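Hi C.,

You asked whether I'd gotten around to modeling the 343-residue construct. I have! Everything is below, sequence then structure, no commentary in between.
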Amino acid sequence: MLAAIQKEINLTASFSLNKKINTIYFGGGTPSLLSTAEIQKLLREIKGIYSVDKSAEITLEANPDDINENKLYEWRAAGITRLSIGIQSFKQKDLEWMNRTHNAEQALQSLTLVKSAGFTNYSTDLIYGTPGLDDDEWQDNIKTLIAHKVPHISCYALTVEPATALQKMIIQKTKENIDPEKQARQFLILIKLLENAGYEHYEISNFALPGYRSKHNSSYWQGELYLGIGPSAHSFFGNVRRWNISNNALYIKSIESNIIPFEEENLSITQQLNEYIMTSLRTMEGLNLDFVKRKFGEDKSLILENQSKKYQENLKLKFIDNTLILTKEGKLFADGIAADLFF
């Protein structure tokens, strides 16, 4: 697989992004299982083809049970500047319920190890709304991250995807179903605690201390170009969205034949506008109607302004400097509001 990924990097040489790369993200699966030499090899391939900013944010996803003192120092030596740690919870029963491979002790220990190794820029993930997690336990999880001064925190409500083992167990009543009211309550608890602790709620699921926003994820929300390498990787080239096939064996076979196996779609103007509506509303900067007017036309801007008035009246949207921004209450309905504003 590593050889195929290296080869795909070389095959993408014709995909000129016409800009310096300022973020690289090792994600999906378990990239933290890569050796130092493998990470260095991939970074050399990228830097040999693309112009990479000297201060680029280079992130590696890692699970707490993959983290130890030696690996942390090796990752730093390999060029990793930021970690994204999938903690999910500090409660053992929740980790067991989610079938996580790490335990509560490893989750807590990972925070100490990361700081001791000299990483100042890192993120942690938490999951809320699991059946066994009560509000006090959820507050404990958040306060643990605050106490450790974790610079970036991503929090997601537990979702039950169709045709998954979790959905089957819920249907068979071997696992308890999620409670939307509890999820909403725990989301508001999250916002209050982190904002009081000085975190910016800069995107629906993301909080950062000043100066520690994720540059990589922010590029998605700002509609910037990005290139994905490997099975299932997604790329975006302005009006074209592309994704590689997910089957590992077929991916490798295709790459060996010098063919990148992908599908793609050309986004219409309407699709591009709807994407902007969806992503911008999720951010603290909001949906700017002046931008809509410049890029998509004055008529679209006026329609959005009129369509949004009902949400302004019920206090789910604020209208400031010709920009629509979700209120705290509105953040609970972000997807529904965005969908209602779609063209």
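If it helps when you're writing up: DSSP finds 15 helices and 13 strands in the chain.

Thanks,
B.
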